Amino acid sequence: AVSETLFNLLLQQVISYVQNLPSLPTSESQASLIDLPLPSSFSLDPCNSLSIVKYLCKDFWSKVFGHQITKLQTNHRGVFVLKDDSFPLLADLSAPLPPTSRLLAILTLAYPCGLIRGALKGFGRESVVSCDFLNDGENVESTSFNVKILM
Amino acid sequence: MSKVPLSRTGDIVWSRTPKTNSELFTLTYGVLVAQLLRDFEKVEEVNKELRRMGRNIGVRLIDEYLSKVSLASPTTPPCSTFHQTGDSIAKIGFKMFLGISCDISYPSPTTFVLTVHSNPLSTFVEIPPSREGLSYCEIMNGVIEGSLGAVSLRVESRFRKQIEKGDDVTTIEVEMMERIKDGVGEGYKDE
C-alpha cells in the first residue's frame, strides 16, 4: 500500500497535465489516457457480462477504492448503472460546487471511467463509460457510472 | 537527540495514514509515463516533465510530513544537520508515503545516498533498449528537490543506480547546493 495523499497528488498532476495540453482532448481520450487493462487472476463466467460487471462492483472496486459499489442497475441488454455514494476521489470537494471545481470534478472522473473501461477490456469487452455526478445536488461524493457494453 | 528512533516515528505515522492500493498507484504512474513518451519526442523532455511534476508533489508532501510527524512525535527536534535531514527522509518520509524505508549512507558532509531495495514505482517495469535515456522514476528526484526546497534547502537529487535498468538496488544521491536564506521555509521549521 502507499499513502492516499501521495496517490491523490499524483492524480492531480495527471489532471493538470491533461488540462494544460495545447488542445484539450475530448472526454473520450481523457479517459483513455488512464485506461488500465487489469487482468483477472481467477475464473468467472466469461460469457456473462453481468457476472463481469458484478465482479467490477465487488472485488475490483473494493481492491481499488476500499469499498463496494453502492448500487448496480441493469436493463439486461448491455447497459449498467453503477452508483457509488462515497466516491473517495471527490471526497475533498464541498457542495455547492463553484464552476471551476465542477470542471475539475469532471476531469477527475475521467479516471475511474478509464479504469472501468480498461478493466472491461481485460475481459475482452469493449465499452462506453460515462459518468454523472452530483446526483442529488448535495452530496458531492455521490456519483454514478453509465456503462454500455458493446457486443 | 530525540529519544524516539526515527524508524519508530515512521511506523507510527504510517499506521495512521489512509492508504491506497499500491498496484493502482504503480499502474497509474506507468500509464502517465507511457503517455508522456507518446507526447514528447525526446526522452530528455519526458525526464524533465516528470521532475517538474515531482517538484509540485514535493512542495505539498512536505506540509503533510511536517504536520503528521509533529503529531506522532512532538519531541522530535528539527533537523540540525543535512545528514539528519537525510535520516528523516529515509526512515520517515519514504515510510509514510511509500510504505518502505530505505538505507542511507553519507559520502560527504553535504551529500547523502539513499538505497531503495524494492521500489514500488517500478514494480512491473523493464526499460527497452530503445528508451535507454528514460529515467523512469525521475519523479522521485523532483519530489525530494521540491520538498526540501520548501524548507529552504536547495538540493540536487540524481540516480546512481536504478532497478529497472538492471541494477540490484535503486540509489539516489542527494547533494546540498545551498541553504536558502530568508524565506517562508524558516517559519515552517521553528515549532
From TrEMBL, chain B:
Recorded superkingdom: Eukaryota
Pfam families: TRAPP
One GO term (biological process): Golgi vesicle transport
Xref: InterPro entries: Bet3, NO_sig/Golgi_transp_ligand-bd, TRAPP_component
Annotated Gene Ontology cellular component terms: endoplasmic reticulum; Golgi apparatus; TRAPP complex
Keyword Transport annotated: yes
Entry keyword set: Endoplasmic reticulum, ER-Golgi transport, Golgi apparatus, Transport
Protein's cellular compartments: Endoplasmic reticulum; Golgi apparatus, cis-Golgi network
Protein family membership: Belongs to the TRAPP small subunits family. BET3 subfamily.
PANTHER family xref list: TRAFFICKING PROTEIN PARTICLE COMPLEX SUBUNIT 3
Record function comment: May play a role in vesicular transport from endoplasmic reticulum to Golgi.
Subunit-level organization: Homodimer.
Annotated protein name in UniProt: Trafficking protein particle complex subunit
Biological source species: Triparma retinervis
